Amino acid sequence: NDKVLEINDLVIQYITDDGIVEAVNGININLEKGKTLGLVGETGAGKTTTALSILKLIPNPPGKVVSGSIILDGINLMETSEKDMEKIRGEVASMIFQDPMTALNPVITVGDQISEAISIHQSVSNEEANKKAKEMLELVGIPGERMGEYPHQFSGGMKQRVIIAIALSCSPKLLLADEPTTALDVTIQAQVLKLMKDLKLKFKMAMLMITHDLGVVAKVCDDVAIMYAGRIVEQGTLVDIFNNTKHPYTEGLFNSIPNIDDRKAELKPIRGLMSDPYNLPKGCSFCDRCDYAMDMCKTIKPVKVKFSDTHFVECHLYKENKDFKLDKLK
Ligand code: SF4
């Protein structure tokens, strides 16, 4: 069985004094060994909440998985104890975050941080853990002799490589990467992404890449899920999303990134801000910002329209006419 992650109808709420936010509102994800799914959207779309829920790290309160299920490598996470999760985190799934500095301990050498991650999960001698830590460091392109150095002696890109070494030290089946290269400059970003892609293939892992950047998606993802206000509004293969864009929000994301072929082309950011999460529109959550909005969009929630086995969208434009063409793409 190649299925590593299966999320079914997942609903996650944050219950605060100001009201209830449906951070994740009924999403479905399937991810197989060796594949990378890009989870794309603006801040507040529910991407990080989704990733944290896979490690059962949603702070409760105020967060709560209200319904749905998450099956990770055949394990139903709705039924696991915190003790089981301690084993699952790192061994079955591990996560890397945007800012490598907060994830590393400044007063422990990088070598010790990697070998510590190994010792927590595997009953090996210190010597073996150190040997493996050195191998991991070399695998991410850092000379083994630098084991005894501290995080401040490394550049941002190197620190992120150390984090990747820690995350992969117990050969997890799933790597969750939350904007792993956003804090890095562009050249380093490309190197780190290439490294992640190579290691994914080497370890035959599945990867969930959380990003707001379609350029990152193009470099590493096989499939793409576009998230908006807690829903996946469009999902497809990389080709479906890039060559056959259907959702006005996806189109807006493409229009708001620089066009490499046409440098003079004007950037067109998506107008407005994401709706107040405490007070989402009754119909389509995107209706206040959508250039194609119709009357029905304000009051009726769009349902899924399928274009193929891999590609679907939630938008009223295609309900009656599947051939509708978006015309605001450059
Ligand atoms: Fe725009 Fe309506 Fe489609 Fe929502 S359902 S994206 S408002 S056209």
Automatic annotation (TrEMBL):
GO molecular function: ATP binding; ATP hydrolysis activity
Membrane topology according to the record: Peripheral membrane protein
Keywords: ATP-binding, Cell inner membrane, Cell membrane, Membrane, Nucleotide-binding, Translocase, Transport
Superkingdom assignment: Bacteria
Domain ABC transporter: 5-254
Predominant location: membrane
A GO biological-process term: peptide transport
Cell compartment(s), UniProt: Cell membrane
GO cellular component: plasma membrane
Matches recorded under PROSITE patterns: ABC_TRANSPORTER_1, ABC_TRANSPORTER_2
NCBIfam families with a match to the protein in the record: oligo_HPY (TIGR01727)
Alphabetical list of PANTHER family matching this protein: ATPASE AAA-TYPE CORE DOMAIN-CONTAINING PROTEIN, OLIGOPEPTIDE TRANSPORT ATP-BINDING PROTEIN APPD
Family according to the record: Belongs to the ABC transporter superfamily.
Protein name: ABC transporter ATP-binding protein
Organism: Helicovermis profundi
